[in-house]
Amino acid sequence: MNCSTISSTVVVSAPAIVAVTDTTPSVNGLPGGTTTALTGNDTLNGSPVVVGTAAGNVQITSSTVPVGSGLVVNADGTVTVPANTPSGNYSVSYTICEVNNPLNCSTISSTVVVSAPAIVAVTETTPSVNGLPGGTTTALTGNDTLNGSPVVVGTAAGNVQITSSTVPVGSGLVVNADGTVTVPANTPSGNYAVSYTICEVNNPLNCSTISSTVVVSAPAIVAVTDTTPSVNGLPGGTTTALTGNDTLNGSPVVVGTAAGNVQITSSTVPVGSGLVVNADGTVTVPANTPSGNYAVSYTICEVNNPLNCSTISSTVVVSAPAIVAVTDTTPSVNGLPGGTTTALTGNDTLNGSPVVVGTAAGNVQITSSTVPVGSGLVVNADGTVTVPANTPSGNYAVSYTICEVNNPLNCSTISSTVVVSAPAIVAVTDTTPSVNGLPGGTTTALTGNDTLNGSPVVVGTAAGNVQITSSTVPVGSGLVVNADGTVTVPANTPSGNYAVSYTICEVNNPLNCSTISSTVVVSAPAIVAVTDTTPSVNGLPGGTTTALTGNDTLNGSPVVVGTAAGNVQITSSTVPVGSGLVVNADGTVTVPANTPSGNYAVSYTICEVNNPLNCSTISSTVVVSAPAIVAVTETTPSVNGLPGGTTTALTGNDTLNGSPVVVGTAAGNVQITSSTVPVGSGLVVNADGTVTVPANTPSGNYAVSYTICEVNNPLNCSTISSTVVVSAPAIVAVTDTTPSVNGLPGGTTTALTGNDTLNGSPVVVGTAAGNVQITSSTVPVGSGLVVNADGTVTVPANTPSGNYAVSYTICEVNNPLNCSTISSTVVVSAPAIVAVTDTTPSVNGLPGGTTTALTGNDTLNGSPVVVGTAAGNVQITSSTVPVGSGLVVNADGTVTVPANTPSGNYAVSYTICEVNNPLNCSTISSTVVVSAPAIVAVTETTPSVNGLPGGTTTALTGNDTLNGSPVVVGTAAGNVQITSSTVPVGSGLVVNADGTVTVPANTPSGNYAVSYTICEVNNPLNCSTISSTVVVSAPAIVAVTDTTPSVNGLPGGTTTALTGNDTLNGSPVVVGTAAGNVQITSSTVPVGSGLVVNADGTVTVPANTPSGNYAVSYTICEVNNPLNCSTISSTVVVSAPRLLR
User: Are residues 887 and 921 part of one domain?
Assistant: First the structure.
């Protein structure tokens, strides 16, 4: 066994294991979470590792995370990020080792990314806070979000804090830690831009800055319309304050200049009224002010907020004295010779005293009057009325208007009565001696006892006679009243007392009449038919009643029915139509078989054989029940009375047993058994229920009664009154405007009735049937116009030009009450008058002067006007100049400009009127130019003033000029004044009256824009405004890099102040909040370090802080000048604890 044994080495190499640096997708640090595996890119033997415990796997054997981060590297290679982890890139190192070869390892450092949640500050506009009392707004952070949810302002994890804010300089607003804003009292209204920054507590550098609007409202200022108690315009006076009901913030205003007061900043009164609105709100009314309601507008503005204003128009009432026209009835004037009445104004008063009619101040004038058309009465200027000869008697209504000379619109209108008397006319009742009715004859005159003016009348047609104008005799009597007053009685006239009425009228005064009724007596024996009710008769078989005349008497004895002298006869009888009842000659009634039931009214007449007209009529009753029959009142559609026509049936709505009636003769029909129409109307009720209206029937509503009875039961009837409407043809008076008539020679117009129509056709003015007449007319009082009977209008010579409203009434001859009234226009022309706008050459306002005539371009009838009082001239009748200007429009059309008149374009309006036609006027506004010297304020930049001690600048007006020369600031003529100025809000700068600016101590540095206005003393509106710059400088602030002595990181501690070497204006800074101090306004420390920069400049190092040099940056800012800052980075040294061996 030749052997040899050896030991060799088999080398098995471990596969390459490579851990690769990874950066995880970010995890939101607010909720926390788990990253992807850090081993995602690691390889074992070139292939991706599998983390596990099986052969061929790898395991994470160790890991390191930043101290205090709370991160945990899990066995599967993922990393758990706890909630509320600050954002940042965390360096995490780990070691992977092969399961097969536990010493085959690879260590690497990867980055775990933790993101900060989104923080969003949203622009907010706060509900308004009233600046007068001040207050606190809602939180500006109300809509801000952190990670999409509303922010919570506080110091806990997950909260946000307001780390900085900016408010408008000098506003006094304070942004509070809870996000609200405190608005101090007396803050001017406006929208204040407030910016602030919110930062996450977890991530102090995760911030959002936004600008929101704090709304400060002004208190409500309300000027209320007022109507003052009236002031008598004659003496004038002062009203109560117009501001009496005005309010500021709901309380009555106080007019003054103190805080909380209001001032009247402007007012407007009617031009030329002379009213003056005083500073205390009252209004001065000058003496001799015309009465009226004057609209006065004014503006009140709050002293605190000069643009918080309210404008209102109130009414200043100026009263006029009472003017009263009193109704008067004149003593009568005999109409035959005519005459003049006493004055109608005898009882009229002005301010309680009798009026004086005239043109002087304090007098009254009769400005218009109306007398009855065609009366010829004339109202005179002195108030009397002229009655012409041959005026018919009557009471004439005369209306007139009196107006105060001082106040032409202060008027009173009244209607008085002018009495024109007529002689007394008396018709006396007479009873004629009887006349035998058989042969007839003529009576004595009925007028035998009548008198005119106390003397027996003479019947005839001459002046002083009377005429019988109408008479009425009993219908059917045949009596005739003759023209001489006697009465003709025809032969065979029945006996009786005949009432004959007649009217006598005076020939001179046809309306002076007297009507009387006289009596003619014809005697006859008394005949009396007595109502009887017969014993009932059976309607089925019929039968004959006892005599209806059983109780009748003649001359007190029972009647004998027959034909002999002394007997009576039944001369007529009425039974219900179609009843079949027969009244027999002996007075009995035959009832036929099958007579319908009902109450049968049977009327009959008995007459004396000797005196057949000596009769008595009576109705007796038979009762038989029958169905209900109802006639219903009807109003027919109108029938035109001119052509006449036939109405619809009156029975249209009538019913029998509840159904519409059928008019006819068949069973079940009804018949019209009787009817009554107005006497003399000519209307005829037809058998079919219609009514025939004859031609030329006057218009009106005619009452027509009729009776319908049942055919079967003719006594079953119903009677009703219906209305037949007869219409009048349409009469239309149409407004007309006549072709113009020259007012100088006068003339006659075309007829006003040219377009008027009757029944649609042109009217014919006349007295015939179918014509129309002008029954009344009214023309303007004093115009002299006369409306003629043919419809034309006579225009007298020398009539002033104008459109004259003439009203007239046309009435139909056939229907005198069918009338139409219209107002037409009579045109009288005047020459054209034209005032032309003019602009005068300028007048120097200092010395004043007189302009050229404003009327230089004005024309009358196309030629240049001549200003004067002669015919053909024009006069300046009124003018208006700006209130308080002192300008005077002279009678010759020039304008006087007084000395020291402020410059400007003055609108001067004036009216020129024709002397011949004082109402033919033209009004125009021209411009009077007054010039002022040039005033120029020049921009200035002052030498700088140190803001710490403050001081006064040079005058801003140093380069300003007036009329090209340097300005002198003062109050004398030729000086200028600083009238207003604006400095930055809260700056404390004051623009002094001499043009310098005072800068207070501790004023922040900056270029302050100061605007001011200089105005000329002579012309306060001649101003110039400019903005200049006041320069205020700030001291130098320097933050110096520092390295602190080391602090042991294990227990932690506090460093010395980083600001130890910092300077302000070359001196060591003092950290604090007082003026002259500095503050640390922001700082930055390494993420995750836990270091805190304190307000005093020291830095707190927390326990367990890893050793190292930490770069800490901070900013110091001057308290006086918060924007005067310096930022630096210093080093905080943290040492590691010493290890003891």
Answer: yes
What CATH number should be reported for the domain holding residue 470? 2.60.40
Q: Is the pLDDT of residue 587 over 60?
A: yes
Q: How far apart are CA 967 and CA 1014, in angstroms?
A: 9
Instruction: Please give the radius of gyration of the chain, using alpha carbons only, rounded to the nearest integer.
Output: 60
> CB-based contacts of 1110: which residues, under 8 Å, 6+ apart?
1085, 1086, 1089, 1091, 1131, 1132, 1133, 1134
| Three-class secondary structure of residue 38 per DSSP | helix
Residue 1033 has pLDDT above 80, yes or no: no
Please tell me whether residues 259 and 313 are part of one structural domain.
yes
Decide if 948 is inside a domain: no
State the pLDDT at residue 143. 92
Q: Please report, for residues 197, 342, 357, 431, the alpha-carbon distance to residue 349 in angstroms, rounded to integers and kept in the order given.
A: 84, 16, 11, 57
List pLDDT tens digits, range 455-480: 888 888 876 778 998 889 888 888 88
* Euclidean distance between CA atoms 364 and 402, whole angstroms: 6
In a domain, 360, yes or no: yes
Identify the domain containing residue 895 by its residue range: 833-931
Judge whether residue 625 has pLDDT over 50. Answer: no
For residues 840 and 926, the answer to whether their CB atoms sit within 8 Å is: yes
pLDDT tens per residue across span 835-872 = 789 888 888 766 778 998 889 899 877 888 888 887 67
β-strand pairing of 105-115 with 27-28: parallel
> Per-residue pLDDT averaged across 68-74, rounded?
87
Query: Do 335 and 299 belong to one domain?
Result: no
**β-pairing verdict for 207-217 and 129-130:** parallel
The 3-class secondary structure across 521-562, one letter per residue, is ECCCCCEECCCCCCCCCCCCCCEECCCHHHHCEECCEECCEC
Say whether both 260 and 288 belong to one domain: yes
pTM above 0.70, yes or no: no
Cα 723 from Cα 638, distance rounded (Å): 10
Say which CATH number the domain at 250 has: 2.60.40.60
**Domain count of the fold of the chain:** 10
* DSSP letters spanning 768-791: STT-EEEEEEE--TTS--EE-TTS
- Residue range 604-610: mean pLDDT, rounded: 82
Confidence check: pLDDT of 1 > 60 = no
User: In terms of domains, do 822 and 849 share one?
Assistant: no
pLDDT at 1094: 93
Q: Do the Cβ atoms of 514 and 508 come closer than 8 Å?
A: no
Residue 957 is assigned to a structural domain of this protein: no
Asked whether 486 and 433 are in contact (CB, 8 A), the reply is no
Amino acid at site 149? S
**Domain end point (choices 711, 727, 743):** 727
Query: Which tens digits make up the pLDDT trace of 262-299?
Result: 899 878 989 888 898 898 999 998 877 788 899 999 99
Report the candidate in 224, 353, 112 with the shortest Cα–Cα distance to residue 1087: 112
Cβ neighbour number for residue 50 with a 10 Å cutoff: 12
pLDDT, residue 798, reads 66
- The Cα diameter of the chain in Å comes to 215
- 396 within a domain of the structure (yes/no): yes
User: Is the domain of 305 the same as that of 345?
Assistant: no
Q: Write the CA distances from 14 to 54, 57, 59, 94, integer angstroms.
A: 16, 13, 15, 20
Per-residue tokens: 298: 């004014």
Q: What share of the chain is helix, strand, coil (3-state, %, to 5)?
A: 5, 45, 55
- Angstrom distance (rounded) from CA 1026 to CA 982: 10
Confidence tier at 1141 by pLDDT (50, 70, 90): very low
Which tokens sit at 406? 């001082």
Looking at the chain, the whole-number percentage of residues with pLDDT higher than 90 is 19
Hey, what amino acid is at 301? C
Statement to judge: residues 717 and 699 lie in one domain: yes
First and final C-alpha spacing in the chain? 63
Shared-domain flag, residues 694 and 641: yes
Confidence of residue 740 (pLDDT cuts 50, 70, 90): confident
| Domain final position from 775, 808, 829 | 829
